[in-house]
Amino acid sequence: MSNISVAIINYECGNIHSASKALEFAISESNLKGKVVVTNNPDTIKKSDRLVLPGVGAFSKCYQKLNAIKGLKESIQEKVFEKGTPILGICVGLQLMADQGHENETIEGLGWIPGEVISLNPRDKNLKIPHMGWNEIKFKKNDNYFSELERKNFYFVHSYYFEAKEDNNILAETDYGVSFPSVLCKDNILGTQFHPEKSQKEGVDFLKKFLMWKP
């Protein structure tokens, strides 16, 4: 049984409580020992084995809040790029990893995964925006570590999505009148457009795989 420490980054833009409870349950289900901490303290982040960047709300507001906390972005980037620590971005947390976001205005993102965040525009105009509810994910590569979750249903709430520049960064897609990336990955950086913390058993299964992931 291994010990693991997971830091949920608290910058006042995410489902902190739900994410914490889901990760705690995933740890217990994975036969791991460990703890989940909610923090914006750079020193705590630097000591963690896994990072989770949640996100709810407008791209620009979330990015501004992330930047407003002294040393926070720098500590995350040090862990991710210098230490190779796995990180999971959820919903807007994933979107912040893009080069740019185009929600109301064009805002520079973190630039961790090449691409931009654009509005969801289904071909079927009867489909409502935001895309809200359960939908399945389809993996592009059957041999992928996460592809055991092929065609499982997860919970989505979004009006924008991450349009990746490089196809090899797209692990899974979802259809809502238009096909969009629902799981992206680049090296030790992982992101979901859906909310695993709201996706019941399938969400916990995804989080369990993230906890055991060795990129």
What does this structure look like?
- This protein is α/β, with parallel strands linked by helices.
- The chain has a single domain (3-212), classed as Class I glutamine amidotransferase (GATase) domain (Rossmann fold), CATH 3.40.50.
- Helix content is 27%, strand content 33%.
- The chain contains 6 helices and 14 strands.
- It has helices at residues 16-29, 42-46, 59-68, 72-82, 92-95, 200-212, and strands at 3-9, 33-39, 50-53, 87-90, 100-103, 105-108, 115-119, 131-136, 138-139, 153-158, 160-164, 170-175, 179-186, 189-192.
- An 8-stranded mixed beta sheet has the order 2-1-3-4-14-13-12-9. Strands 6-5-7-11 form a 4-stranded mixed beta sheet, covered by helices on one side.
- A hairpin with a 3-residue loop joins strand 12 (170-175) and strand 13.
- The model has no long low-confidence stretch (mean pLDDT 95).
